[in-house]
Amino acid sequence: MFGLTEIDLGLRILGCGDGPAAFNSELTKRGGNIVSVDPIYAFNAEQIGSRISETYGAVMVQLRENHRDYVWDEIPTVEQLGSIRMSSMATFLADFDAGKQEGRYVLGELPALPFERGSFDLALSSHFLFLYSAHLSAEFHLQALQEMLRVSREVRVFPLLTLEGALSSHLPFVNEHLAKRGFAVEIERVPYEFQRGGNEMLVIRDVQPGRSNRAGSRQVET
Ligand SMILES: C[S@@+](CC[C@H](N)C(=O)[O-])C[C@H]1O[C@@H](n2cnc3c(N)ncnc32)[C@H](O)[C@@H]1O
After folding, report:
1. Residues 168 and 133: beta-carbon distance below 8 Å
2. What's the CA gap between 101 and 186, in Å, rounded?
3. Which residues, judged by CB distance below 6 Å to any ligand atom, belong to the binding site of ligand 1?
4. pTM score
5. 133 alpha carbon, distance to own chain's centre
């Protein structure tokens, strides 16, 4: 989703809206440095697990109904996708209590993050910004991205499509405002595509020296 290189995986990474994903657990196991922030971390593992089980059936029905909106090259059936997702969520749930104690799962929500300026090298967000463009305004998106850029020198967002499968109409607004503020904004193609046409990410880099605290950061290769 984010075209992450081995070098990227060695950076200080923030995942915004990571929810019950396995990325934090898996990257931590291989020695990475990652913090995930999400409002669902207000709940405990049991509560999150119950919610996942309750909604599983409805998610599967929706996937079957909208089968043609997705690309089934890597994962050929809805059932296989369901079992991969449940296994990822089990990985998350098994890691959640320890990760919360270690400060890897942090309760918080955009557009205000509970971190110091320059705490991260790379802030990622998947399936939250742009996807819910019908519910979250262009101004919210701009504030959220600026907040991510306050705490991290680079931001990547995937995908750029809405739930309806159209390119988000907020993109020109946020790109123009961020470019005016001196950030380098690019749309880059990535190797992952599940939502049909959703194979691009937005990359925003802070290219103004001295704006953020870069102590301990390294150059990112893309
Ligand atoms: C569709 S899930 C995506 C989870 C994960 N990033 C992925 O790609 O599988 C959207 C996530 O955004 C989180 N979320 C909702 N409002 C948020 C906010 N204001 N700031 C950060 N995350 C939020 C939800 O709790 C949920 O975990």
Report:
1. yes
2. 36
3. 16-19, 21, 38-40, 109-110, 126-128
4. 0.94
5. 15
